[in-house]
Write a structure and sequence with these properties.
The chain has helices at about 15-25, 100-115, 160-170, 255; strands spanning about 1-5, 5-10, 55-60, 65, 70-75, 80-85, 90-95, 120-125, 125-130, 135-140, 145, 150, 175-185, 190-195, 205-210, 215-220, 235-240, 245-250, 255-260, 270-275. The protein is an alpha+beta fold. It has a domain at about 90-115 and about 130-275: Alpha-ketoglutarate-dependent dioxygenase AlkB-like (Jelly Rolls, Sandwich). The strands form six sheets. The protein has a seven-stranded antiparallel sheet with strand order 6-7-18-15-20-13-10. The chain has a five-stranded mixed sheet with strand order 5-17-16-19-14. A two-stranded antiparallel sheet has the order 1-4. It is globular. The two termini are about 40 Å apart. Bound molecules: 2-oxoglutaric acid. 2-oxoglutaric acid binds near residues 259 and 273. Its main location: cytoplasm. InterPro entries: AlkB-like (IPR027450), AlkB-like_sf (IPR037151), ALKBH3 (IPR032854), Oxoglu/Fe-dep_dioxygenase_dom (IPR005123).
Amino acid sequence: MAERRQRARVQGGWAGGAAGKARSAAPKAPAASNLAPADARPAWVRKDQRHTQKHFVFEKPSEVERRVPEAGVIDKPGVYELSKGPTGISRIHLIPGFIDSEQADWMFEQLLQDIPWGQRTHIRQDVSFEEPRLTSWYGELPYTYSRITMQPNPNWHPLLTMLKERIEEFTGYTFNSLLCNLYRNEKDSVDWHSDDEPSLGKNPVIASLSFGATRTFEMRKKPSPEENGDYTYVERLKIPLDHGTLLMMEGATQEDWQHRVPKEYHSRDARINLTFRIIYPEPDGVWK
Ligand SMILES: O=C(O)CCC(=O)C(=O)O
């Protein structure tokens, strides 16, 4: 939060700054001697004694000092309204233990083995680089993000169908697509982004189910137009997503916030994240 601070400066007080420099240039006081002064009366009775002239000058700060806000942590189950704006309410719902840990254990092993994990490669300015994770897509429709299209894949794995139905029963939403992410170790990640592709429609609902190693899901609020794209002072959140946790993102969350899963400095085992989505056919039939 922006903070105004009143600063006090003592003029002619202590060394340092312009006042201090001016004092050091002043004529030197006579060296101390063991001779008694001409007027031997104590200083406090002497009328001619000059008092040290110290006075405080309060200066208005020339500019507003801003503090980078500390990231909040959400690690308790519940529904959280992250923000409210002209675009609507950004809301998340955290459900740790949505899948109990014993079931999550065998599900993780099965998904790791059975999902057809693939490597997407991007080309930017003639340089190609691999996404730092493996992915797989399920759904009747294709899905394009970061300028690469995932082809339709209607062959849902029975475990994925079962998980989709469990989430649908719990949330009341019906999903038709799924993006699977495999983070092989601490070096895998997904960078800041919003799930705001046109094919997801307005205010998309995303159900994100995690298995395996706990990784931190980070969120940051998109800056207001006055910030000119500067994210320095925006609100931030950290949400540890562990084995069997469901995270729902709803309302304006994709419009007003970004999220990422950063790399970790310490070693991490594999993690699988399933993001169930609702995909709409593009009105003009063109997949951007
Ligand atoms: O792995 C996660 O928790 C997030 C995945 C994600 O951001 C995405 O699939 O868009």
